[in-house]
Amino acid sequence: MFYLHILLIVYYTHDVNPLNGYFFINENVSPTGAFVNLPPMDSSPTAMASPASEPLQRGPRLWLGLKPRETAAMLVISLAVLVASYRSWWTIGVAEAWGFVTGGVCVWLVVREHLWNWPVGLANNVFFFVLFLRGRLYADMSLQIVYLGLGIYGWFNWIFGGKNRTALKISRTTRGEWIALAAFIPLCTWGMREVLVRVNDAAPLWDAMTTVLSLAAQYLLCRKRFENWWFWIAADVIYIPLYVSRQLPLTAVLYAVFLAMCLVGVREWSHSLKRGAWAQ
Question: Which of 18, 42, 137, 278 has its CA 20 to 30 A from that of 184?
Answer without folding.
Answer: 137
